[in-house]
Amino acid sequence: MKGAETTEQGNCSTYRGDTIPHSCEKNPVVVDLPADAPYNAQAGNCCRGGVLTSIVQDPTRYMSAFEMIVRNPMRSKPSNFSIGVAGYTCGDPVDVPPSKYRFDGQRYTQALKTWQVTCSYSQFRESDMPSCCVSLSAFYYQSIVSCPDCSCGCQGSPAASQCISEGQQPNYLQIPKAKSQDEPISPVVMCTQHMCPIRVHWHLKSNYKDYWRVKVTITNLNFVKNYSDWSLVMQHPNLGSLAQVFSFNFQPLFQIGETNDTVMLWGIERYNDMLLQSGASGNVQSEMLLKKDPREFTFKGGWGFPRRVSFNGHDCIMPSPDAYPALPNGSPRKFPTSAAVHQVVFMGLSPLVLYVVVLLL
Questions:
Q1: What confidence score (pLDDT) does residue 338 get?
Q2: Name one GO cellular component term (predicted).
Q3: CATH number of 128-323
Q4: Which residues 6+ apart lie within 8 Å of 91 measured at CB?
């Protein structure tokens, strides 16, 4: 095997050969190798350390591959695929055209067989509770609209995470231990009225003649987890006219045809691509400059706030629309009215696709 390894060798006592197999398990668990794996253990496009980015964030690290030699010819399709990540469910292998490989510059070789396995993600399969929420504020409004109460559970309830009061730090004995090496550690969050590990804050900062400015802050309230290669997806009807993002990478996402009301944001490598655990450095922030569309721009009716927000593919709980920061009564500045209805498009994770390729050796 190259590019990966199995966690168990299994019982190979019945094997009669010169070389002991890498694994004799009928249902092996295969894990990725780290990026610094020995060269003779690597395969093409391998060794991501078990971490894949989205194709938008890094086209060089959105896939991983490994090779293995099977002693007995495969008489039937492989089955019972699982990627071992909470929330994902894998379907049965499907026959697809055999993969082709370029050989010697102008000749192509072809695999004997190729199967495709699609693994779909569901946030509800991963957890019964949401993991992030959204708070709002505006330059014309004195208060902050906090995340809705009990967005990710209520303090003291069985479903809520363990929490630490503001200003305190958890000691080692308070940190929960994982039951197994592959199981993530349960969150330990700051005690808040919403109890979410992640809070996204949208601040409507400034209003200019032809532009308006928004500040976005992501705060990690989880004391026991860093978020590497994080991503944030937001939906707003004016994001199609996004002029500049000052300290995040961004990419528009076209949901339906030419509709461009959704943008994906992520950190700049070695600057803010790591969202550290709760504390003084546990936040990242950026400002966005958006060009006004005279046909629909307004601050009335909560138009200046996002329709939907997701962090790392998880939908965040939004405040109730009637709680959005409202313009003060008798505001001297009149804004054109906006359309009453806005299209809301579901934002979720794309299916994860696996390919199984059989080569003739």
A1: 34
A2: plasma membrane
A3: 2.60.40.290
A4: 117, 118, 119, 120
